[in-house]
Amino acid sequence: MECDICLEDFNQVERVPKMVSCGHTVCLLCLQQSDRRQCPTCRRVFDVPPDALPNNYQLLRQLERPDSPRAPRGWCSDCRAAAAPRCWDEAHDVLPEKRALKRHLQGAMLRAAGQLEDLQDHCQGEQAVQALTLLTTESWCLNLQGGGHDLTGNVRNTEDPLTQLMWLLVAAKAALTKSRVEARSPSPAAARPPLAAPGAAPPETRYPPPATATPPPAAAPGQAPPEVREMDVAEVSPTGPSERQQDKAALLAEAPGVTQVVRLFCHNDPAWSLQLLQRAAPTLERLRVLYPLEPHLRAVHAMPRLRRLDVEGGAPLFAQPPELPAVGALSSGHAGLQWLRVQYLPRATTQSLLRAHGSTLEELELLVGTAGRGEWPRICDDLHSLLQQSGLRALKRLVLRRWSSGHRAAACSEQRAQVLRVLPGADVLCVECDDVELGQV
């Protein structure tokens, strides 16, 4: 998608596509560089300034698509987000990404050079221990939350000096707190499930059989409720089948009786992560799981006591979207979800999950877009219909999570009005339009 005059790619900043009255589309920069107000293609005259010409919104929508091979959008300093078409129309402060980054970092490199040499001397006591932990651990999962954004990634430790300096800065500036399950060696009597060895068949061909454990009985009247046991596996779960095998075996041994598992990454070692879910299933009440495959989703769906679930899917599920059975078809003792957050699950999978828990689900956070041209979940023309067909009889609160770069207030307002007509008893909120306090697993 390029301008026919300068042969440069259209973008949403200085080369925004403008429609001339003759019907041709030319980038704004080409129109501004001409002394005459005429179409450079057919020479037809127009009588308004180039920036007052209408944008070609069909091209702009194509640039916004996540699968667009070339979609430079620019950065809007007013919105503090990737620029959207309205940012240009409303004369926001928009710059190409590289220029915006240069502006924000102006002079920082020179000022930081002198400080970096003294940085290690400032890390003392607990900060020095944290820096050494960050530097010597094989890999780390990062989860950054702020301003309505939730960014997750992995960093593997190497001899790269920039990575080493990054960990030093994190230890010195981030005020870290430690919260994780210690990976202890299992007792000799503890059975160690087989783990994938280097050179073994791909993990997806080595799934263990489904667990058949029966949930323990609830506490009798007058007895204290079971102890809450949390397992945070963010340090171990992003590693491959041949890595951290001793730690993984220890976590499997500790899984029975756990009531909360957070930050379980399933895609790097699918067989081990599925075993962990199956071992924790009888007692698990809260779960945050990322990039599950179909066997993981089915294991989660069958957990009898699960009440709060945060699930973030990925591309493999979209190839053949799984549909989950109704809760009643699993077990008469299934509690059903009360709180659910869904991100990047296929539409059919999302709807089957909502249907299964329609009678118990009270709060739903859903990452979904508004009407337009594109694919689910960035685009959704009929959210009200999807929710109505899901039978959400107990829903009290719906939070719509958005992509800041493509959020349009008018389309959002229309979508929410449609949803309110089919869910009249629920609060329907948007993270971009409302002051929303997001839930936690």
From TrEMBL:
Any GO molecular function: ubiquitin protein ligase activity
Domain of life, per UniProt, equals Eukaryota
Sequence segments annotated as region (Disordered): 183-247
* UniProt domain RING-type: residue ranges: 3-43
**Name of the protein this chain belongs to:** Uncharacterized protein LOC113217512
- State where composition is biased (Low complexity): 184-204
Q: Membrane-crossing residues?
A: none
Species lineage, top-down?
Answer: Eukaryota, Metazoa, Ecdysozoa, Arthropoda, Hexapoda
Q: Biological process GO annotation list?
A: protein ubiquitination
Keywords in UniProt for this one?
A: Metal-binding, Zinc, Zinc-finger
On whether Zinc-finger is a keyword of this UniProt record, the answer is: yes
The protein's organism comes out as Frankliniella occidentalis
Q: Which gene encodes it?
A: LOC113217512
Biased composition (Pro residues) is annotated at 205-219
Q: Name one Pfam family in it.
A: zf-RING_5
